Amino acid sequence: MRDLAPILKAYDIRGVVPEQLDDDTARAIGWAAAHVLAGGSGAMVVGHDMRPTSPQLSAAFADGVTSAGVDVVMAGLTSTDQLYYASGALGLPGAMFTASHNPAQYNGIKLCRAGAAPVGYDTGLAEIRALIDDGVDSPVAARGRIGQRDTLGDYAAHLHSLVDVTGGRPLTVVVDAGNGMAGHTVPAVLDRPGLTVIPLYFELDGTFPNHEANPIDPANLVDVQAAVREHGADLGLAFDGDADRCFVVDERGEAVSPSALTALIAVRELLRAPGEPVVHNLITSKAVPEIIAEHGGTPVRTRVGHSLIKQTMAETGAVFGGEHSGHFYFRDFWRADSGMLAALHTLAALGADDSGRPLSQLLDPYERYVASGEINSTVDDAAAVTARVEEAFGKAADVVTDHLDGLTVEFTGTPMWWFNLRPSNTEPLLRLNVEGADRAVMERVRDDVLRVVRGPGEGAA
Q1: Best exposed site among 67, 133, 268, 306 by fewest CB in 10 Å?
Q2: Where is each Alpha-D-phosphohexomutase alpha/beta/alpha domain found (predicted)?
Q3: What is the 8-class DSSP label of residue 7?
Q4: How many C-beta atoms surround the C-beta of residue 211 within 10 A?
Q5: pTM to 2 decimals?
Q6: Catalytic residue among 79, 87, 100, 257
Q7: Mean pLDDT of 300-310
């Protein structure tokens, strides 16, 4: 058995195979997860991505689950949001074998309780680790049984029941699956009248021969951007490896801000659920809460992290939630995140626009300010550097600060600007996000903050 400490993350389990995660480890985690997550349900649903190690690791996990007397529903190849669908529709806790956007040598497990409820370190993973460390087991009357269930068709039908993309103007969309699980789900979901899909890298290949399946890195958007321009497409979609995140490129080949998509989807959800709360994390654009409020919704601000978004949605009854990282959460999808559902919303909004505007013009009202993107700096003492920044910026006139997640400083005068500086959970880094009324303002604030952060002895990550 490997030491679990290096592979237990805040929201999932992830490590290098087989050095950190092997069959024995997966089997032990399955046994413990059966005790922690499946006590009342008597079964778990297990899916896996296209990585070469995923089938074997998921089989070992299932063996561990059944050794605890719990049944397993093997869903086979699934995207992460397809696994969430299975958990929600079947009312079972779930396990998804994937390392998302990480390189090929990695694998991992995303766990959820019945109804796709999130499992993080403080909501199940620490308990699983403690159970494995104790190594105490009680005999079971009989091993659990393993069955098979393909959920792809039902998953696609459920998404179509939530967002109808038929009946609008015809659209041509380039989709870059990055050799990940979107190559499995897109043919089932986007095979709809009026949609012409131009596929890039749909072959399932967990060695990622074309580029990393990590669309938050601009280098991995180059191919979809070029294809949109080449084919004169209406838009492009790029998914990460397990297809729970979707990034959008407009008709010019320009990347669309996830904040703009959050605002667009929030407006659409508020049309059918007027006045409802909408959750956004504190890194999204200031335009997001403004637009939510302008359309009659109640903006709810949270810290960064998908478990926090889901928890806040449950507490407030929010209809939708969005993050700057390209995760989008839907109340009607068990508050789980679905890149495919976000893509359908984008296609439906564009197709239904009677004026025939291109995507860039449709989204223009939601792109109000200029953001820096996340800038990492290596520091020796994150707390001391943060205090230094607060001393430099937090006491000026017309400035307010808060510590919801790191340090946020906002200028309440004109021109508008704000920044957030927060520490990494796993590395000696400070992450800076800046937004301003225009590019000149943003760059001035960005450079001023970085000069303080990267004083003597500090530097870029």
Answers
A1: 133
A2: 8-133, 154-253, 263-369
A3: G
A4: 20
A5: 0.94
A6: 100
A7: 90
